[in-house]
Amino acid sequence: MSAGRRIVAAVIVLAGLALAPAASAMTLHDGHGLTVTSVKQIDTRLVALDVKTGALPDPVDMRILLPTGYAAHPHRRYPVLYLLDGTSGLASDWTTMGAAEQTTAGQPLIVVMPNIDLGGNGGGWCTNWPNGAESWETFHINQLIPWVDSNLRTIATRAGRAIAGLSQGGFCSMSYAALHPDLFGVALGYSPAPDIYYDPQARAGAMAIINATEVGLDGVPPDTFFGNPTTDGINWAAHDPTTLAENLRWTRMYLYWGNGQPGPYDSPSSPSPEAMGIEGAVAYDTEDFQARLDSLGIPAYFDPYGDGTHSWPYWKRDLQWSLPKIMFDFAHPVPNPSRFTFTSADDSYSVYGWQVSMHRTAREFSTLEDAGLRGFSLAGSGSGTVLTPAAYAAGGRYRVTLSGDTTSTTSRVLVAGRDRRLDLQVPLGPPNPYQEDTAQAQAAGTAVHTTTVTIDPISAAKPRAGAA
Prior knowledge:
The chain is α+β, with helices and mostly antiparallel strands. It is 25% helix and 27% strand.
């Protein structure tokens, strides 16, 4: 049988009767770009596995914690917490050092703990590297999440997903939440680094840390993860939670960090200078993120708990402190927004059921503003194609009016297709010739043109043959 058609079942071998309930529930299949290469039952709740993916050169280690009674309730679905480790960490760290299994005991919750690095090296900062060597976002977002939803009984919506991480993993959790707010209803950072570009001082510190990870831990040239910050600064900004803060308006966020001074879990006679220094830098970085959210009026929970260093006892406590909030949010999820604003530097992106494709000369940010079923604005240059969610009457007629700062007001009637969507072509203005945030763009300027689109229903009845 060919590999493309082969369904590989990684069946857990029963180690004893005590393992039977969990083991019988865990048959893991290949799919969504992942091949299961090994599975080991650690105990009645904890499973260790390796997967191969074309997005990464080596297999990836992972741990999964099932809720107690998972096998006994075959029709019950559970929310998922994606829990990420930090620089040079292992997928097992949260269970061996972070007490994740004990902390989540008795909770109706699946916990997925994938690696963010290969074999304990420095890590890839949860981005698709410009050189194509490693594609972490593809693995975590496009492959792992649908694989988990197809293999486990999850609540496969943003209302049933949270993402959390420590240190580099804290950056990952906030970055992924900002890039994909329709996937995660809750995002948490424990001693995170949520500003790698927005604030100049935070940018300098982040670049030093990231370059040290690249060269000293991963053994790759500097500027491998995001590109050169001088010539490809937009790629740094495009992954930066602080730059993308508006995208997080409808996400429930919780951040915990110390000030870098020895705290209750540090040796009073010999605290770690490295752990103190890193946490001090984290404090500045996270405070800058907090100030950015405050300036935009975006709510979040911040706990700058004071004395504490960049070390596991504090992250263990962070998970213990935050788990009740996570479970409350799963029980009382924030609804999808009826209107939202989303910024991206991608040529094409999807969010909350909307799809946007930009047609322009150079890479730059575009923004889908105040998007709702009665209309939206699109900001950028060139033009865009906007496909609405499937929320209109099939065959219904809608008057679409466009008005922009460089285009005259036009109006036409569109008919929703069988897919109940409207396909809109949105002119913006002359495309900018230079990639945003480069020396050429700074000299010439990056023009931002905005076109506003209003959608008014005319009739929900199917149109006559030949109607517009």
